[in-house]
């Protein structure tokens, strides 16, 4: 494969990854890493390094638009970043000492878990919210305008300590595998803390960039970020994320979610097979 072909394929895949990542709050890395390793034959640790860059690009591209639309809950994001940043540093350290085979297997299971979480119907209706002194004291409750419903949506946050603990786990996964770990963050925000799904996606996008930046330095120091790979990934993901951020407030992501679940399951099986074969 010529360098030009490699760059064009990487760029095209990154645009798709950035678009889907920003819509679903999952981060582009969950697509980029499998594409680089399975399709283009890139060493998984270099793929993870490029993926870390893509996560930062996704967050940079989408976060500004979501904040402008008042869909991102900044107070929740900044609080939970304490957990994700600590976890990201832990994961980045572990990534330097864990074998390629184990990384493939872990990544495969994370993809399968992401698919199962996305298949679950997330709450969109108002449900009884248990009291949360943390959320009340820190003023985490908020609201946003939903263009698809043409109304203001008010919501309350709950189980803040549980969300903080889950974010540490999500941070470990992010630093270890070079993904935004939105597959863990979005369910935590949506199912545990009861944020609306669109707010969960927008808040997850903002948090992913901070989490990834915390671990990027360790990957760079180990020489696992190759500019030839990372540059088209960052450009493509940023482009896709900007497009996705414009669509989120107006689109029903149900059909995109179903298609993405199928992609996750297929790639999960391929990554698990590669890990168990020891390649």
Structure notes:
It is a single chain. The chain has 279 residues and is mostly helical. 73% of the residues lie in helices and 4% in strands. It is globular, with a radius of gyration of 18 Å. Strand 1 (142-146) and strand 2 (151-155) form a beta hairpin. The model has no long low-confidence stretch (mean pLDDT 78). It has a two-stranded antiparallel ribbon. The protein has helices at residues 3-24, 29-39, 44-68, 74-95, 100-119, 133-138, 160-177, 182-192, 197-221, 227-247, 254-277, and strands at 142-146, 151-155. The protein contains 11 helices and 2 strands.
SSE layout and pairing:
Layout: H1 3-24, H2 29-39, H3 44-68, H4 74-95, H5 100-119, H6 133-138, E1 142-146, E2 151-155, H7 160-177, H8 182-192, H9 197-221, H10 227-247, H11 254-277
Antiparallel strand pairs: 1-2
Helix pairs in contact: 1-2, 1-3, 1-9, 1-10, 2-3, 2-11, 3-9, 3-10, 4-7, 4-9, 5-11, 7-8, 8-9
Q: How would you briefly describe this protein structure?
A:
The protein is 73% helix and 4% strand.
The overall number of domains is: 1
Compressed to H and E, one letter per element, the order equals HHHHHHEEHHHHH
The strand line-up of the biggest sheet is 1-2
The quaternary state of the protein chains shown equals single chain
Could you say which structural class the secondary elements and strand pairing correspond to? mainly alpha
- How much helical structure, as a percent, in the residues? over 70%
Give Rg in angstroms. Answer: 18 Å
* Shape, per Cα inertia axes: globular
Average pLDDT: 78
The largest pleated sheet is described as: 2 strands, antiparallel
What is the first-to-last residue Cα distance? 20 Å
Count of alpha and pi helical runs: 11
